[in-house]
Design brief:
It is built from five helices and eight strands. By secondary structure, the protein is an alpha+beta fold. It has an eight-stranded antiparallel beta sheet. InterPro entries: DUF447_C, DUF447_N, Split_barrel_FMN-bd.
Amino acid sequence: MSDLRLRIVEGMLTTQNADGTVNVAPMGPRVNDEFTQFLLRPFPGSRTYENLLRTRQATFHVTDDVEMIAQAAIGDLHQSPEFHSDSGEGYHILAGCCRWYQLEAAQVDTSGERAALTCRVVRMGHLRNFLGLNRAKHAVLELAILATRVHLLSAEEIDQAIVMMSPWVEKTGGDAEVRAWEFLLSAIQQRRFAGRESS
């Protein structure tokens, strides 16, 4: 699948661990306009990477639950998510998502820095409507990405982004967005402290 002008859609990906439990992680696959083809690019060594190579199955979720995205990005889900009862063998559908797409990898390329899995959609569904565009939700999403890159980016770069985006959360966010924002600010501080301790 060509990745020319394919958009990245941020969401949640579930895969099945070797012991049958579920791995829940943020993922931003490249998708075509029709949402019929997905390009997944997990990082080597991640649980998502290992599960995808072993099973070649995943479920991608379109969601507006930025609290779950924030917590999953840090690896600190505060409560175990609920799953749809009719998920199918090897697939796991998050009960609170907006839309879901069960994927099967048709091509796998592990030669690059990140794996590239070209996937086809084997089943899809709709559970609820997407809330709509909201600047606070987008701010939380951006900060979640930055929080995973504390070891790669300068503190100044991250702090500038926080200063720029804080008003978006204050002016347009609800309780969930504020909680997610504060959670990520705390996580960034903890990661900075841990980085100084280990250096």
